[in-house]
Amino acid sequence: MTHALPGYVCAEDGTRADVRTAPWCCPLCGGPWDLDFTPDPAAPLEPLTGPPSLWRYGSALPLPGAYAVTLAEGNTPLVPLTERVHAKLDFLMPTLSFKDRGAVMLAELARRLGPERVVADSSGNAGTAFAAYCARAGLRCEVFVPEGTSPKKTEQMRAHGAAVRVVPGGREAAAAAARAEALVQMLETRASTASEHLGRLRGEAERRAPAEGTAHTELPPELVPEDVDQAQALLRTATAQLGAHTAAVESARAAHADLLRAHRAAEDGAGGFEETAALLRDLLRDHTHHEDEQEPVAHTGSLEEARQSAAEARRSLRACTSDLSAAESAVREASDTLVRHANANRYEQVRTPARQQIRELPASALPEHAAAWAVAFAPRLRVLTDELAQLERNRDSIVDRLRGLVESALATLRSAQRLSQLPEGLGEWSGQEFLRIRFEEPDQATLTERLGEVIDDATRAAVKKNSTASFGEGRRDGMSLLLHGVQAALEPKGIAVEILKPDAVLRAERVPVGQMGDVFSGGQLLTAAIALYCTMAALRSNDRGRDKQRHAGTLFLDNPIGRANATYLLELQRAVSDALGVQLLYTTGLFDTTALAEFPLVIRLRNDADLRAGLKYISVEEHLRPGLPHQSPDEETIHGEITATRMFRRGAPA
Fold first, then answer.
1. What is the pLDDT of residues 317-339, one digit of tens each?
2. Overall average pLDDT of the 79-92 stretch
3. Coil, strand, or helix at residue 86?
4. Using 50, 70 and 90 to split pLDDT, how confident is the model at 549?
5. Is 619:608 a contact under the CB 8 Å cutoff?
6. What is the model's pLDDT at position 1?
7. How far apart, in whole angstroms, are the C-alpha atoms of residue 95 and residue 101?
8. Predicted pLDDT of residue 131
9. pLDDT tens-digit profile of 279-317?
10. Are strands 510-512 and 496-500 parallel, antiparallel or unpaired?
11. What is the pLDDT of residues 165-223, one digit of tens each?
């Protein structure tokens, strides 16, 4: 029934558009649309006998035909306030506001147009009305509201099934966000439609494409068809023109062949004429000789042989003349290149006399000085060649050192994954690696080439920075160079790092580290952080040659039980720390007996003060656990007992 819908019209400039394809505002002035609709004044209104909703006035509304969306809106009581003023009790509407009147029309229009979703902006009542009527129409609804909107209103919208998007700022920000979302939806719809249409056209073009080669070309704007009918008409015209042009081409080819034959005949005639003219010039040449010239010797052969010898000599002379012209052109080009180099900005600091001469002398005078300059520049060329060779050796040495560091860094990543292996007794996590680090290590040749590019880029950046930096600036950072080297070594895929997600049943579910903040709870994030710290501590102990010792350090946790008080999280934290040799010390002000029951030693401390001496100190109030397990005398001694303390007392202010 969309064919019977009215169109859009702009009240400012009269622009009209189809309601099914129009944008949300006038494309010329940006103003809002009006419906291109004028009710029939002769149409009867039956408010008393029509349906109990706004559709009882359907003959005066711009949506003809049967309706499907209603919540029995309208027909609210009219209460007199004074003799001339009456109040309409629209709080009795289905969503408690007069916005239901417009919402029912919009929802019915949207139902007939069939969009994927309805986008609206509101600060309260309108959003609730849109959500309710879109739910009745079976349409997805998304409402953008400004921050500060009443929570009760947003709860109403969500209760009707709408997706509520809270936008920072005021109502204008919410309206802008809704318009942006509507434009995105429109562009996505148009892109999908265009993609389908393009697929059909591409298939049609492939079916109509010539069998040999690619014969398609770009068309001028006036030949680009707007629809299929115009395309077929243009195709028929082009086919007729192609036939005419093909015949003209055949005629032109025949004429071209005739012209080629005539040209070859003319060339043969011109060659004979040139031979005759050259012979005549030789015969008419002045035979007077200078004293230093040799007396010509008569040809000993026949006249025909003499003519052939003369023709060969002339051809040789023409070839020598052509070679001389090419050599002179090469000398001129080389002179121009030399002048451009001498005038280049990068040689402004060169103050040699030769450069000044090259810049001041005309280009035609440069060749006669070339030999002297070549002799003068030869020693400098040898010095520069040696320096460049030394720089290349230094560069190779730096690349080799950087390659060693990069390989060591990659080995550290592999060690981190290996050291993160969990102990037994953790369900599916038993024997699993807490970290999984994946990357593709390049071969030695590719790695050397990529690291060379990193060194070259760093050198260029340092030279550019040092040229403008003051003394002491422009220093190279070795760590950033190493990071760039690792990044270049692992291109183009880089590094993929996954981590096990802690949960109550310890499923072996891995999550990319970039998504931890989205899928981990606070306690899971803390547990993952503790596991990562223990892995790094074990890695550091391993790098220091203490891979046989289980003691990799101590980690103090400041009040973590508030977020991670779940028993399975505490068990997992202690299991990981025990496996990697890290001692965990929890400090907390909470008395959670369920969480504290997981620890072998619990010490309660009390703040005490000696007011007469002006001292404050901490004392042990009680032991809630008997203590840590005793160490076997056969094992290596682990120093984990506090034997002495120091106290610093701040002096009185002067």
1. 888 888 888 888 888 888 888 88
2. 90
3. strand
4. low
5. yes
6. 39
7. 11
8. 92
9. 666 666 544 555 565 666 777 777 777 778 877 887 888
10. antiparallel
11. 998 988 888 888 888 887 787 777 778 778 888 878 877 777 776 666 555 567 777 77
- Provide DSSP, 29-66: T-PPEEE-----TTSPP-TTTS-SSGGGGGGGSS--S-
**For range 399-416, the mean pLDDT:** 84
DSSP letters spanning 370-439: HHHHHHHHHHHHHHHHHHHHHHHHHHHHHHHHHHHHHHHHHHHHHHHHHHTB--SSSGGGTT-BSEEEE-
| Closest to 120 (Cα-Cα) out of 97, 139, 95 | 139
Report which of 188, 139, 185, 147 is spatially closest to residue 164, judged by C-alpha positions.
147
Extract the tokens encoding 413: 């990543």
Q: In whole angstroms, give the CA distance from residue 126 to residue 107.
A: 12
Q: What is the tens place of the pLDDT at every residue in 242-268?
A: 888 888 888 888 888 888 888 888 887
CA angle 253, 255, 261 (to 5 degrees): 105
Q: Are 398 and 451 in contact (CB under 8 A)?
A: no
Q: 418-434 b/e with 16+ CB inside 10 Å = b? A: ebbebeeebeebeebbb
Asked if residue 160 lies in contact with residue 128, where contact means CB atoms within 8 angstroms, the answer is yes
DSSP output for 306-321? HHHHHHHHHHHHHHHH
How far is the C-alpha of 181 from the C-alpha of 162, rounded, in Å? 15
CA-nearest of 437, 534, 544 to 486 is 437
The distance of Cα 96 from the centroid of its chain, to the nearest Å, equals 47
Are residues 436 and 498 in contact, defined by beta-carbon separation less than 8 angstroms?
yes
CB 134 within 8 A of CB 107: yes
Cβ 478 vs Cβ 455: under 8 Å:
no
User: Minimal CA–CA distance to 29: which of 10, 48, 44, 54?
Assistant: 10
In this prediction, residue 471 carries a pLDDT of 44
Residue 453's nearest CA partner among 423, 429, 485 is: 485
pLDDT given for residue 181 in this prediction:
81
Phi, psi (5° rounding) for residue 583?
-90, 130
Contact 582, 552 (CB under 8 A): yes
Query: Tokens 């086919």 sit at which residue?
Result: 239
**Which structure tokens are listed for 167?**
């936008």
**Residue 574: DSSP 8-state:** H
Q: How far apart are the first and last CA of the chain?
A: 91
Query: Number of C-alpha atoms within 13 angstroms, CB side, residue 508?
Result: 11
- Compute the average pLDDT of residues 523-551: 73
Q: For residues 322 and 23, what is the distance between their CA atoms, to the nearest angstrom?
A: 71
**Cβ atoms 566, 424 nearer than 8 A:** no
pTM of the complete model beyond 0.85:
no
pLDDT for 529:
84
What's the burial of 143, exposed, middle or buried (CB within 10 Å: 0-12/13-18/19+)?
buried
Confidence tier at 472 by pLDDT (50, 70, 90): very low
Comparing C-alpha atoms, which of 565, 627, 567, 618 is closest to residue 591?
A: 565
- Annotate 450-493 with DSSP letters as a single string: HHHHHHHHHHHHHHHHHHH--TT-----HHHHHHHHHHHHTTTT
Say if CB 109 and CB 5 are below 8 A apart.
yes
Tell me the DSSP string of 255-277. Answer: HHHHHHHHHHHHHHHHHHHHHHH
HSE on the CB side for 3, CA within 13 Å? 0
| Tokens linked to 142 | 């998304």
